[in-house]
């Protein structure tokens, strides 16, 4: 493939950098390579963070039929720089009787976990910063520490609202962590390995050159992707489920007592969490860095990855712009009564798909199973409460 | 098996553990416990059992630490006066420690260096789990459900 | 084909038995019915007996009829009945005499208030007696023998309110019981030896040759044991004491039981098991037979002498019966079985007659029994006097018309030929004289001489009492027809020979001798007693001897001194033994047991319990000590666990 | 000095004793649970260490036991903490020395 050079450009750059240190002991080389990876990772995602924060506000504005920030830089593209500087200048207030240590540690820990999670996702052909055998497991292990960090934040600020927000956030994140993990199970089962590279490799070939073997195209894969996407949304406390920092209710949830740079880190950590979850979604279901059709393989792998990633991010922002906030008990019920059973059915559907020989028959069977369960569950959970017709009252 | 890594991790873990045992404020103790768990995970990585390390992090840090923290949260109204430190416990702990160390140091055969072993892959663990340890797996599943239900029942609001 | 009667011989005893049971169930007031029923039963029995007698005439030896009474284990007890001349004759005699006595007692007992019970006992007695006679098995014979004993007890003690009657009944029963004990042992021994008690069992009977041979030496002792039963029942020498006292019963009882039938049972028994006695006889003499003879002789002489000194009319007759039985035993002993039985039958008739006569005399003199108070009844009671004199003549053996003479003469004839010794013959001759003597004494005192106190208002008995007297008198005379040596039909019938009429045998030297003796006896009697007053002439001549005889040779007192004292002391000794020795032993053992019990309880109390209590106390103390340690502090527990682990570690280190 | 088995055992012993210390010396109920968790972790460390230094690495029972003990420790922690909460709700205190109803 002619594009190989372009494809492997970053790896070769890294080799180049490493060659600057000839004769160094291997452990030094190891550390150097990992430092380079980390630096590249941070660089890429910080720029993406900046871009997305602006784009989000512009897209939301567009959704709300208004312009987004366009004063700073062309079309407002430099807005993040401005925000960054603002954040840095702001005074960092620490509540007097707050638990100084926790207050200080919380943002660091959240940011750390988010970045760590990003470390295992394959961005391109052999462009995985840390290829761990149990990569997926590492991702979730690290993911689960965010709850702890949120708690530290809530507890540290010694403020009722932040405590309440922290508890809501934790409750929400814990109950959605389960469907998140169980939906990845079918993929791991089908692929037979926990490492993201092998998962992406399993989705490599195309049938008839047109239809890629992405898992999302299988019935159970689609269902699992949707469930994964929703629980990802909840994990990162995004709009329909952003109850913790529900501005109208409890100020900013566990982040109320933060200001200045700590608040910025929280903000950044949230976005990084979003990147991590959607990155994983891409690797698991959308074929990682594979091109949609075999013909387009000439375009380098990492381009495909980031394209899919930004597509998902757009959907995030899109959803944020459209859906109203849901009540915390609705979220809980939805998680335990709908998401969990559906997740288990995806596993069974994947098994059925696999044992029917992965051909059309398998495809139909698993589709049928998922449809039946979905229909059954929705009928079961249908409370039959009709929403009252909206009555508009104009403010006098 | 780098000695440096071993020393660093052991320092980290022991410090965390000691902090968990001695810090006056409960929340700090709980969080230092998290540090110890991470140190344990690092140990497991050092010993070549990544999977166990990950599970350790996943279970202990993800679940147990959160539980502990939540419990501290729910029992906050019990004013945090310093309960003091019961020194007899310390004496017993130290005595037991010396006893154990004496037992370990007495057996010379233990002082062997880590042999080269093929890396322990998750596939190998899955294999063994599904063949040799199927029955214990089911039992642990049952146990966890029972614990779940038990904990729920225990914690339910007492009907006044 | 055996005639009907032989097969159903058991009917003869059965009818009176049934009658007695029916009468027992009747109320006391049904006097007429009871008497009629009893007499009818007796008439039926007599008819059957006559039929049986006729049957034996046609076919002398009918086969016995045996059947199994009950089986125990694998051997069976068989009983049955047999009809031979001996039994037939006895049947007729018993039934005839009983009939007469039944009719007599209707009159005699008329005034008695338990009239029906009397007749029930009488017919029960006759049934038992008939049972003895027809029995073909010693066991059945023994059963009936005991029933006869029971009946005699009931009848002697009929007037139970008289203490003397009750004592007499008891005495009779016990003395016969002593005899029966010997009889029972003999029977057991015989059964043990021969294996069967049937007399005739077509060859296997106990007194048929096969079994006899197996007996061997023990035959004599068995015979003697069985003879002891006869001695008891027939009142022979050692065990005769009860018979005179039995006179306490009503006179018909004495007549029936102590004259004709029961006492005859002993003689009948000896006759029935005669082969036992005569086993291995050397010229007809065996040790058992000699014993029989000597006992018979002593009884006869002794009782005859005592009769001389008795004042009571019935006692004189009682002693005369004893002496006559002794005579019969002697005749059996010397080998004259047929003679003995003939005398038995004849004696049955005239002794019953004498007793009934005495009964009507007593009835006439208003229950007076002392002959010294009677006298001159000849005019007042002519019929009784006549029949009584016939009976007296027969008894004392006046020849020609009277049956007693012929049978006595036969016996004397038999004793004469007894090879063992001549002495019994001589003594028997003396006996004849004595018999004649005391009978004439009685006649004179009662019927001749001046009227004394009791006979002042005497009156003749009513026909119902005098009729039986006449019948019996006719029998006593008529019976001699078959007895005379000219035509000894009964002798032949009993011994199974053919009889032929020969007047020449009438002339017998023995006949004239006995005639002379009788005449001498009577003459001596008249000489001594013709003007006897209140006191007995003999008493005037020989007061000491007379008093000796009057008191029945002090035998009763002698028995009191010896047997009674002995049993009394034996009773006391065993009582003492039981009370102090055995009881003491038992109490000693109980004491030991108690001691042992006390010992164990004390051991248990102080030793074990105390120990256990101590142990429990300690453990509880220890327990409380430890529980104090349980401060409820969970951390102390955990510390204890850690220390425990440490201790184990140290122990391990110390061990290795 | 490359880490030997004894060093690992020493570290786990130290960890175990600190756990014991936590359990024994602190008043608060949760400390006991923390102590127990530490002790369990020390035990896991021993298991994996012995597997690692053990003669045949293919035989991964050590690791298996460690995994299962982690699972069971989680269940135990859950129930323990539920107990602490229930006790707190009922007795309004979590200090261990007051919870001595089982006194002998």
Give the N-terminus to C-terminus distance of chain B in angstroms. Answer: 58 Å
| Mean pLDDT across residues of chain B | 85
Q: Helix share of residues of chain B?
A: over 70%
Q: How would a crystallographer describe the biggest sheet of chain C? A: 2 strands, antiparallel
Number of helices of chain B: 6
Distance between the termini of chain C: 117 Å
- Annotation, overall tally of beta strands of chain C: 2
Alpha carbon gyration radius of chain B:
20 Å
* CATH class category name of the largest domain in chain B: Mainly Alpha
Strand order, sheet with most strands of chain C: 1-2
Strand content of chain B: under 5%
CATH superfamily of the largest domain in chain B: NADH-ubiquinone/plastoquinone oxidoreductase chain 6, subunit NuoJ
Task: Tell me which protein chains meet in the greatest interface and how many residues each side has.
Answer: B-D, 86 and 72 residues
- Can you write the helix and strand succession of chain C as a string? HHHEEHHHHHHHHHHHHHHHHHHHHHHHH
- Round the mean pLDDT of chain C to the nearest integer and report it: 83
CATH topology of the largest domain in chain B: Four Helix Bundle (Hemerythrin (Met), subunit A)
Q: What's the shape of chain B?
A: globular
Major sheet of chain B: none
| Class per helix and strand makeup of chain B | mainly alpha
- The CATH architecture of the largest domain in chain B can be named as Up-down Bundle
Provide an overview of this structure.
Chain A is mainly α and 396 residues long. Chain A has helices at residues 4-7, 9-19, 26-63, 79-89, 100-118, 135-156, 160-191, 196-202, 219-235, 247-250, 260-285, 301-322, 328-355, 360-381, and strands at 206-207, 211-212. A two-stranded antiparallel ribbon of chain A has the order 1-2. The model of chain A has no long low-confidence stretch (mean pLDDT 85). Chain B is mainly alpha-helical and 160 residues long. The longest helix of chain B has 25 residues, at 50-74. Chain B is built from 6 helices and no strands. Chain B starts with a helix and ends in a 5-residue tail after the last helix. The model of chain C has no long low-confidence stretch (mean pLDDT 83). With 104 residues, chain D is mainly α. Chain D has one domain (5-93): Helix Hairpins (Orthogonal Bundle). Chain D has helices spanning 5-25, 29-53, 61-91. Chain D is elongated. Chains B and D meet through helix 1, helix 2, helix 3, helix 4 and helix 5 of B and helix 1, helix 2 and helix 3 of D.
Write the layout of secondary structure elements.
The complex is a heterotetramer of chains A (396), B (160), C (656) and D (104).
Chain B: H1 3-22, H2 26-46, H3 50-74, H4 87-106, H5 122-131, H6 134-155
Helix pairs in contact in B: 1-2, 2-3
Chain C: H1 4-7, H2 11-25, H3 31-58, E1 65-72, E2 75-81, H4 85-108, H5 115-134, H6 138-156, H7 163-194, H8 209-215, H9 218-234, H10 242-245, H11 251-260, H12 262-272, H13 274-277, H14 287-308, H15 313-334, H16 337-364, H17 377-380, H18 382-396, H19 403-416, H20 423-447, H21 463-478, H22 489-495, H23 509-529, H24 537-541, H25 543-550, H26 555-629, H27 634-655
Chain D: H1 5-25, H2 29-53, H3 61-91
């Amino acid at each position: 493939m002619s594009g190989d050079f372009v494809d492997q450009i970053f790896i070769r750059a890294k080799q180049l950098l490493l060659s600057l240190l000839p004769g160094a002991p291997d452990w030094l080389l190891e550390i150097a390579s990992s430092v380079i990876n980390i630096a590249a990772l941070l660089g890429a995602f910080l720029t993406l963070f900046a871009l997305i924060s602006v784009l989000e506000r512009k897209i939301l504005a567009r959704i709300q039929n208004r312009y987004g920030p366009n004063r700073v830089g062309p079309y407002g593209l430099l807005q993040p720089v401005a925000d960054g500087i603002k954040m840095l200048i702001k005074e960092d207030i620490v509540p007097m009787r707050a638990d100084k240590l926790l207050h200080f540690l919380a943002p660091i820990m959240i940011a750390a976990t988010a970045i760590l999670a990003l470390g295992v996702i394959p961005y391109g052909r052999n462009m995985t910063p840390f290829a761990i055998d149990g990569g997926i497991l590492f991702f979730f292990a690290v993911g689960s520490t965010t709850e702890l960090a949120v708690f530290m934040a809530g507890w540290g600020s010694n403020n009722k609202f932040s405590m309440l927000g922290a508890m809501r956030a934790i409750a929400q994140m814990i109950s959605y962590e389960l469907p998140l993990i169980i939906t990845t199970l079918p993929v791991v089962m089908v692929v037979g390995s926990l490492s993201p590279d092998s998962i992406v490799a399993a989705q490599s070939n195309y049938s008839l050159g047109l239809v890629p073997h992405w898992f999302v195209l299988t019935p159970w894969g689609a269902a699992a992707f949707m469930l994964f996407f929703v629980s990802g949304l909840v994990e990162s406390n995004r709009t329909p489920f952003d109850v913790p920092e529900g501005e109208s209710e409890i100020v900013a949830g566990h982040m109320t007592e933060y200001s200045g740079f700590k608040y910025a880190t929280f903000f950044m950590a949230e976005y990084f969490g979003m990147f991590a979850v959607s990155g994983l979604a891409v690797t698991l279901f959308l074929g990682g860095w594979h091109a949609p059709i075999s013909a387009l393989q000439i375009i380098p792998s990492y381009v495909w990855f980031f394209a899919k990633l930004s597509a998902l991010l757009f959907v995030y922002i899109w959803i944020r712009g459209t859906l109203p906030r849901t009540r915390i008990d609705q979220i809980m019920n939805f998680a335990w009564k709908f998401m969990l059973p559906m997740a288990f059915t995806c596993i069974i559907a994947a098994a059925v798909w696999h044992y029917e020989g992965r051909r059309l028959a398998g495809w139909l069977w698993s589709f049928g199973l998922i449809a039946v369960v979905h229909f059954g569950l929705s009928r079961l959970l249908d409370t039959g409460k009709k929403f009252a017709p909206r009555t508009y009252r104009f403010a006098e | 098996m780098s000695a440096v890594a071993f020393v660093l991790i052991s320092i980290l873990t022991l410090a965390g553990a000691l902090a968990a045992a001695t810090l006056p404020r409960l929340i700090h103790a709980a969080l230092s416990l998290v540090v110890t768990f991470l140190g344990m995970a690092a140990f497991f990585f050092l010993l070549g059992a990544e999977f166990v390390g990950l599970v350790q992090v996943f279970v202990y840090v993800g679940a147990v630490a959160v539980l502990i923290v939540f419990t501290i949260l729910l029992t906050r109204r019990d004013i945090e006066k310093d309960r003091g430190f019961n020194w007899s416990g310390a004496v017993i702990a130290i005595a037991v420690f010396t006893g154990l160390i004496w037992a370990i140091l007495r057996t010379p055969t233990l002082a062997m260096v880590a042999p080269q072993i093929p890396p322990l892959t998750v596939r190998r663990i899955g294999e063994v789990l599904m063949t040799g340890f199927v029955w214990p797996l089911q039992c642990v599943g049952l146990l966890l459900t029972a614990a779940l239900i038990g904990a729920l029942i225990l914690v339910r609001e007492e009907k006044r | 084909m055996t005639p009907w009667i032989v097969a159903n011989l058991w009917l003869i005893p059965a009818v009176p038995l049934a009658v007695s049971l029916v009468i027992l169930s009747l109320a006391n007031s049904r006097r007429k019915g009871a008497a009629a029923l009893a007499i009818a039963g007796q008439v039926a029995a007599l008819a059957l007996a006559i039929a049986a007698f006729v049957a034996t005439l046609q076919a002398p030896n009918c086969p016995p009829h045996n059947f199994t009474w009950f089986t125990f284990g694998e051997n069976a007890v068989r009983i049955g009945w047999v009809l031979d001349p001996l039994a037939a004759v006895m049947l007729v005699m018993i039934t005839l005499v009983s009939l007469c006595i039944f009719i007599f007692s209707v009159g005699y007992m008329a005034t008695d208030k338990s009239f029906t019970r009397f007749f029930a006992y009488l017919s029960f007695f006759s049934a038992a007696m008939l049972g003895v006679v027809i029995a073909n098995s010693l066991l059945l014979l023994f059963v009936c023998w005991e029933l006869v004993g029971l009946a005699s007890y009931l009848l002697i003690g009929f007037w139970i309110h008289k203490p003397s009657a009750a004592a007499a009944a008891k005495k009779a029963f016990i003395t016969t019981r002593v005899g029966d004990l010997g009889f029972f042992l003999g029977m057991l021994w015989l059964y043990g030896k021969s294996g069967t008690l049937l007399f005739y069992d077509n060859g296997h009977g106990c007194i048929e040759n096969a079994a006899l041979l197996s007996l061997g030496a023990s035959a004599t002792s068995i015979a003697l044991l069985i003879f002891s039963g006869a001695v008891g029942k027939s009142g022979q020498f050692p065990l005769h004491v009860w018979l005179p006292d039995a006179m306490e019963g009503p006179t018909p009882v004495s007549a029936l039981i102590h004259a004709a039938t029961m006492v005859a049972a002993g003689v009948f028994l000896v006759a029935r098991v005669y082969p036992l006695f005569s086993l291995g006889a050397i010229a007809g003499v065996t040790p058992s037979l000699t014993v029989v003879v000597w006992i018979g002789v002593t009884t006869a002489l002794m009782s005859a002498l005592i009769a001389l000194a008795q004042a009571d009319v019935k006692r004189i007759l009682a002693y005369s019966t004893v002496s006559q039985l002794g005579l019969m035993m002697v005749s059996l002993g010397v080998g004259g079985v047929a003679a003995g039985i003939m005398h038995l039958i004849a004696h049955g008739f005239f002794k019953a007659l004498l007793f009934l006569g005495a009964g009507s005399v007593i009835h006439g003199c208003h229950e007076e029994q002392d002959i010294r108070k009677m006298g001159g009844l000849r005019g007042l009671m002519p019929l009784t006097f006549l029949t009584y004199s016939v009976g007296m003549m027969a008894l004392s053996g006046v020849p020609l018309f009277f049956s007693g003479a012929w049978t006595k003469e036969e016996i004397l004839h038999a004793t004469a030929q007894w090879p063992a010794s001549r002495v019994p013959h001589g003594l028997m001759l003396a006996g004849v004289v004595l018999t004649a003597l005391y009978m004439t004494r009685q006649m004179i005192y009662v019927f001749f001489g001046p009227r004394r106190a009791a006979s002042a208002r005497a009156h003749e008995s009513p026909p119902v009492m005098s009729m039986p007297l006449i019948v019996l008198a006719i029998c006593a005379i008529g019976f001699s027809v078959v007895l005379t040596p000219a035509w000894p039909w009964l002798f032949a019938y009993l011994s199974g020979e053919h009889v032929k009429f020969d007047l020449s045998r009438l002339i017998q030297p023995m006949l004239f001798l006995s005639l002379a003796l009788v005449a001498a006896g009577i003459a001596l009697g008249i000489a001594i007693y013709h003007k006897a007053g209140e006191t007995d002439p003999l008493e005037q001549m020989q007061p000491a001897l007379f008093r000796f005889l009057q008191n029945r040779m002090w035998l009763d007192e002698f028995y009191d001194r010896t047997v009674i004292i002995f049993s009394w002391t034996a009773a006391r000794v065993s009582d003492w033994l039981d009370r102090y020795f055995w009881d003491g032993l038992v109490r000693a053992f109980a004491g030991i047991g108690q001691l042992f019990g006390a010992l164990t309880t004390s051991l248990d109390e102080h030793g074990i319990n105390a120990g256990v209590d101590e142990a429990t106390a300690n453990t509880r103390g220890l327990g409380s000590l430890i529980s104090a340690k349980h401060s409820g502090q969970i951390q102390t527990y955990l510390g204890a666990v850690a220390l425990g682990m440490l201790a184990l570690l140290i122990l391990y280190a110390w061990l290795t | 000095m490359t880490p030997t088995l004894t060093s690992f055992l020493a570290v786990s012993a130290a960890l175990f004793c600190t756990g014991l210390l936590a359990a024994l010396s602190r008043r608060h109920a949760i400390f006991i649970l923390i102590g127990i968790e530490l002790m369990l972790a020390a035990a896991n460390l021993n298991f994996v260490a012995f597997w690692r230094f053990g003669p045949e690495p293919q035989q991964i029972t050590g690791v298996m036991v460690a995994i299962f003990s982690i699972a069971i420790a989680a269940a135990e922690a859950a129930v323990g903490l539920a107990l602490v909460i229930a006790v707190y709700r009922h007795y309004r205190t979590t200090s261990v020395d007051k919870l001595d109803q089982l006194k002998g």
